[in-house]
Specification:
611 residues, Rossmann fold, five-stranded antiparallel sheet, 35% helix, elongated
């Protein structure tokens, strides 16, 4: 039965106190500023497991902490308490190992780690009973390593071969070697070319590279136009990592193989960001194919961001362990990339990038706010009444349940306003459309234009006074919206914001019996109790018969400065209007268009780090 490390608890180790974190079933990325102890943590995890069998390259699958780090005799190492808990393939806690330190300097082995089975976390259980159970159930001795083939790749694997060629030995591998019999050469070539495409020449053969400074030999295959001793540190880094993978691949063909643990310090060294992501994706692939659990450290923002994305989708297989504060390290509770990035750069504050949204004027910005408030209110109601026909006139639509589902699908947009910077301009729609066309910068900006901007020709734009009692239908006039890129959106309907809002007000004031619930709700709240149909009608009493949107602007004036705005905002009339299965489609279409625009502009904003 396969077992794996899944929880590491550091009660006391150097600067660490009471620190714990889980490990991903596939990939765990440990990150943080220099000096927080990332490399130590990787080596400690690797020191609890291993098997004594040798790899094809001569190294064993049992790393020793003392090979990579030194415990000084003056340290209080006897007080160090570190616990690594394992799970089995059924998801059951198998046992816990305390990583104790033993002074074997008189035997030439230094102060080394002894993984002792512990009863920590077990009630009414002695260490001996815990050890007996681990031995009986999993074949793990009381002071023995967990039988998982383990490799730890330290930074000693890296140095420019050409600069130290006198300390490098390169040997050819005979075609009768097991590497060729198991087709490990093909795997090496496949995986290397996966990470750095078209690197290895087609007729390349395997060689072994041994470095005096590194305890592990590595494989090598000739690279296109690059002699062995001229390869870069990045190329050598990839070669070392793939050599470890090939070691595990060959081992996996033996009886009894049930997974491996590969710990790699600083996987990103000298690698291009795209290469780093390809390497991470290869790990993802091989974690399934070869049952490898990866624990790696990195300073790479690319690796960090990609793993956070994976963890957000599946927090059992992937984990980001970000360690903060070198003087008293702890694991951050936040997995916000922006916050971790700011800590990486030593910032005391961070600005989360936001997509900019431009409006024609402040009225457009206020209408945007009212529409999103209406959407949130409706979403909250539908969320609580999953199968109920909460909105009005459910009998007038084919399937209100389908509309409920459509609303819930958009739940990710309820906090949308936190992700944007809203900027009202004093520009017309034609000017905003033109600057979007001529400057590529504005591809990362969303434009929300008035509804009447859907038509370019003024003669085609409908007048609201003609459509107070019936809905405007462009299909009856055989008209089409103007062509526009995805980051340009339009407010619902085909009218300027003032006309749009006036039509809603006209509807509730001129048909009070049809909107009885609205006026009753006005009477139930102190701030709206004095509103009546007549009082609201009187606000528009001076409109001429042939009024247009300019006349309405004179009544609306600046946002929040008139009684009309006070009524709209306190009555929440926009929410009322769209809490109707006959009209909510219009709101949902608007929210969906904004989402599409955001999905287009957000990656560009991130890439430019613009906020």
């Amino acid at each position: 039965m396969r077992i794996r490390p899944y929880h590491f608890y550091i009660e006391n180790f150097r600067n660490f106190r009471d620190t714990s974190f889980d490990l991903g079933r596939k990939i765990t990325v440990v990150s943080g500023q220099n000096g927080v102890g990332k490399s130590n943590i990787l080596s400690l995890i690797a020191s609890s497991s291993g098997v004594s069998s040798k790899s094809m390259l001569g190294s064993n699958f049992q790393p020793e902490f003392t090979d990579f780090f030194n415990i000084d005799p003056d340290e209080s190492y006897e007080d160090y308490k570190l616990y690594l808990t394992y799970k089995d393939s059924n998801g059951t806690d198998a046992f816990t190992k305390r990583l104790a330190f033993k002074n074997d300097t008189k035997f030439g082995r230094g102060i080394r780690i002894i993984p002792r089975t512990s009863n920590v976390g077990l009630e009414n259980c002695t260490n001996k009973v815990a050890a007996d159970q681990a031995k009986h159930n999993y074949g793990v001795g009381a002071d023995g390593r967990v039988k998982i083939p383990t490799i730890y790749l330290s930074l000693s694997r890296l140095y420019p071969l050409g600069e130290r060629k006198d300390t490098v030995k390169i040997s050819k591998i005979n075609k009768n070697n097991t590497f060729y019999k198991t087709k490990a050469d093909e795997k090496y070539k496949e995986w290397y070319n996966y990470i750095i495409p078209n690197s290895i020449v087609s007729d390349a053969s395997l060689t072994v590279v041994e470095k005096n400074a590194c305890s592990r030999a590595s494989l090598h295959m000739d690279l296109l136009n690059t002699p062995t001793l001229s390869q870069s540190i990045g190329q050598d880094n990839i070669g070392n990592i793939i050599s470890a993978l090939v070691d595990i691949y060959v081992l996996s063909m033996q009886d009894g193989y049930d997974g491996a643990l590969l710990c790699i310090d600083e996987i990103d060294v000298s690698l291009h960001p795209d290469t780093q992501i390809r390497l991470l994706n290869l790990f993802d692939k091989l974690s399934d194919e070869l049952s490898i659990q990866f624990v790696v450290s990195t300073h790479s923002l690319s690796v960090l961001k990609e793993t956070i994305k994976k963890e957000n989708k599946n927090n059992l297989d992937y984990k980001v362990v970000y360690i903060k504060n070198p003087m008293a390290p702890y694991v951050s509770d936040s997995n916000s990339y922006e916050l971790l990035e700011a800590d990486m750069f030593g910032s005391l504050s961070f600005d989360k990038p936001k997509v900019r949204i431009y409006f024609e004027d402040p009225v457009g910005k206020e209408l945007f706010r009212l529409l999103f408030k209406a959407f949130r209110n409706i979403l909250n109601t539908i969320r609580e009444n999953v199968d109920d026909p909460y909105l009005r006139h459910s009998s007038d639509v084919k399937d209100y349940a389908t509309i409920n589902d459509r609303i819930r699908v958009l739940k990710g947009m309820e906090d949308f306003e936190e992700k944007i910077n809203q900027i009202p301009t004093i520009l017309g729609c034609e000017e905003l459309i033109k600057i979007c066309e001529v400057d590529s910068y504005f591809k990362r900006v969303i434009f929300v234009l008035d509804g009447d901007a859907r038509y370019k020709e003024p003669s085609q734009k409908p007048k609201i006074r003609d459509f107070l009692k019936e809905k405007y239908d462009q299909k009856k006039l055989y008209l089409n919206d103007r062509r526009h890129p995805q980051n340009i959106c339009f407010f619902p309907d085909y009218f300027a914001p003032e006309s749009f809002l006036y039509r809603i007000i006209y509807g509730v004031t001129n048909a009070p019996l049809d909107n009885y619930d609205f006026w009753r709700s006005m009477d139930m709240k102190e701030e709206t109790a004095l509103y009546t149909t007549d009082k609201i009608k009187n606000l528009f009493a001076n409109l001429p018969n042939d009024f247009n949107n300019d006349n309405l602007k004179d009544i609306f004036k600046e946002v929040s400065s008139t009684e009309v705005w006070k009524f709209i905002q306190t009555s929440d009339i926009v929410t009322y209007y769209y809490s109707d299965y006959r009209t909510v489609e219009e709101l949902l279409q608007f929210i969906e268009n904004i989402k599409k625009a955001f999905d287009m502009t957000w990656p560009i904003t991130l890439a430019n780090r613009y906020s």
